[in-house]
Amino acid sequence: MNRAFNWAGRRAGLAASMAAGIALLAAGIAPAAAEDITIAHVYGKTGALEAYAKQSHTGLMMGLEYATDGSMEVDGNKLVVIEKDTQLKPDVGRAALAEAYGDDDAAIAVGPVSSGVALAMLPVAEEYGKILLVEPAVADSITGENWNRYIFRTGRNSSQDAVANAVALGKPGVKIATLAQDYAFGRDGVAAFKQALKGTGAELVFEEYAPTDTQDFTASAQRIFDALKGEKGRKFLFVIWAGGNNPIGKIKAMDPDRLGIEIATGGNILAAMKAYKALPGMEGATYYYYDIPKNPVNDWLVTEHEKRFGTPPDFFTAGGMAAGMAIVEALKKTGGSTDTEDLIAAMEGMEWQTPKGKMVFRKEDHQALQSMYHFKIKVDPNLEWGVPELVRELKIDDMDIPIHNQ
């Protein structure tokens, strides 16, 4: 797709705008002054999820750029992005968001990375009466029991992960154990997965939770092996893990195959998917992989990211771009107004294009409905990671995503 800017056209447009302004002044009517629109990216720039944060910010900036044709303006109003580091600490995230709204007069905030931090930030958006666009924190409770009307989310939620992975793994006679992080992301993920498996014929027989900083998974793995070894039929260990010290490689080294146990998991960043090379044929579902979606937005993202950074865009780059494009689409609908009620009215039910194709903000909980991708891992000797080869795109209408805030 050619996104080259027509500078001659823009000069002509500027001249026309100046002429219109002069005409208004001559008539005694002052044109509305352009104002900066401050967008605060409040996210965990440092800590265990730093890689996710970097991708998210890159994607956000590229989304704003793409959606404004490189001008970084909407209706003459300049978009100014400020950054605040939550350090992955709920109290720091809460304070940083309050500072962004109160001291920096941010019209919209984006973030954070961590679900635990997000849950601490939700009441701040309600207190200040301003939009928090959650990207990429995943826990269902963010748009569920802890939700308020100022919260929108472009990132997928635990139920979208769960429903998509249940499609991939949920077959009659299958027995599944889960290993997840012991905080909101992991526990909400398992709860949603258990619900999504109902009616598939598969059964979740054991749940194991481990601290996010766990390094030695021997004890957890042994409990899982003991729970599954006596089960009949096909057996899976399904892993729900974010950040460093991902347990997949370590558990694979413990040879679960000897007990007939297969490892399964969802998509992840490219660095984490290096462990997937040891799991050819593994099935699961992913939010994004750069080679799967076929649309003009993703074509631009892949081309520009490789040109600028020498690598393909990653898991959370796409999410950040979706958030940036949502902001611009909402501001266009309001005519550049940053009034919160105008933004809510514009965003409820809003459809817009992203690297994944169409997203829609569901009116009931402001969760972005979107495609997910059922994959099977193949090994490409030219790539460092296991490649999630598309089995089936699960479109919005293919998934019944529960509403949790009612």
UniProtKB/TrEMBL annotation:
Keywords: Amino-acid transport, Signal, Transport. The keyword Signal applies. Residues 37-378 form the Leucine-binding protein domain. It comes from the Bacteria. InterPro entries: BCAA_transport, Leu-bd, Peripla_BP_I, TAT_signal. Pfam families: Peripla_BP_6. PROSITE patterns: TAT. GO terms for biological process: amino acid transport. CDD domains: PBP1_SBP-like. Residues 1-32 form the signal peptide. Gene3D superfamilies: 3.40.50.2300. PANTHER family: LEUCINE-SPECIFIC-BINDING PROTEIN, PERIPLASMIC BINDING PROTEIN OF ABC TRANSPORTER FOR NATURAL AMINO ACIDS. Belongs to the leucine-binding protein family. This is Amino acid/amide ABC transporter substrate-binding protein (HAAT family). It comes from Breoghania corrubedonensis.
